[in-house]
């Protein structure tokens, strides 16, 4: 159960809200609708759950926090803060230290490198769709979204595909887990033990895979320590297993309930790239935290050194102060900027791969299955935590 604490003296009573981000009210309407409810209260509030932390709800503040690493440090990045056995690198260090690790993990994700993976993603996408198209139905999460990005990642990391379900279970528990600290610790611990053996092996006997490339990178000209290799490896592991699968599922859920948008994508396939950006804006995933490094007041909110503040990326894309009719998906919207991949020094290095996989999905699914819906009587299951997700999404179509 979440650790609920007493309000500290520096937190004004009017900024306290009883909010558990793993079980927010309104989940019957979906994860994003539940988060959107927070716009009905203070722009920044404090909750006693998970040891107590602030929550930023507006786009302007989320952008400020993402960029201002001097006052909002990445040294603590997730809740509960006690769950992980080691630091994820470079995610949980700040500039200038951050740059040295980022230089190691970025090369495999350049546009040139990702272009080579597009054919792999497209071939797998077609194979998956054709495998269930004639059935007239699928459970999208287990039949597609947890296959495409996970299989692509396991291929470039040279990890065994037959352990995919175990890897997904670890990632799901770590990213969500319903606030169960022991479940999260167990998932992180098992994944850490497994990756430790793999990374030790790749250190001794490197191959041509992603993990080998990372563990043999140089940190400011020196060899990384074993802990640094593990920190970079486990970050790539969890990032590659969970996030794109979640985004694909939210997109499929939206399209299943919006016939006009399906029609637009089928009739005008050239709009797919801008549709990808609009879907990313509308369905932000991460709900991470930052560590406040000094005492200061921000817009009347009295922060103290050591406080944590949550930065729900979904609320950036759902902010009506930034976006007109933010809950709507508009393929004509000029979505030139969104915060889904971050906008500071820790901007996600895997964004090129994510965009490619989403684009390929839309390009290959829509011509093959242009009209699909949720079967009557079925209930979609969404979840929230450190990463929002769809856990169950049944679809059907005419054959």
Overall mean confidence score, pLDDT: 94
Strand order of the largest sheet: 1-2-8-5-3
The counted number of beta strands is 11
How many helical stretches? 14
Helical proportion, percent range: 40-55%
CATH class: Mainly Alpha
What would you call the structural class?
alpha+beta
Number of domains: 1
CATH A-level architecture: Orthogonal Bundle
Distance between the termini: 46 Å
Please identify which CATH superfamily we are dealing with. Answer: Cytochrome P450
H/E series: HEEHEHHEHHHHHHHHEEEEHHEEE
What is the approximate shape?
globular
Stretches where pLDDT falls below 50 for ≥5 residues?
Answer: none
Please report which band the strand proportion falls in: under 5%, 5-15%, 15-25%, 25-35%, 35-45% or over 45%: 5-15%
Account of the protein in words:
This protein is α+β, with helices and mostly antiparallel strands and 399 residues long. The protein has one domain (13-396): Cytochrome p450 (Orthogonal Bundle), CATH 1.10.630.10. It is built from 14 helices and 11 strands. It has helices spanning 31-36, 59-67, 97-105, 111-132, 140-145, 148-157, 164-175, 181-204, 210-215, 226-256, 259-267, 272-282, 313-317, 351-368; strands at residues 44-47, 53-56, 72-73, 137-139, 287-292, 296-298, 301-303, 308-312, 381-383, 389-392, 394-396. Strands 1-2-8-5-3 form a 5-stranded mixed β-sheet. The protein has a two-stranded antiparallel ribbon with strand order 4-11. Helix 6 packs antiparallel against helix 10 (226-256) and helix 7 (164-175) packs across helix 8. The radius of gyration is 21 Å and the shape is globular.
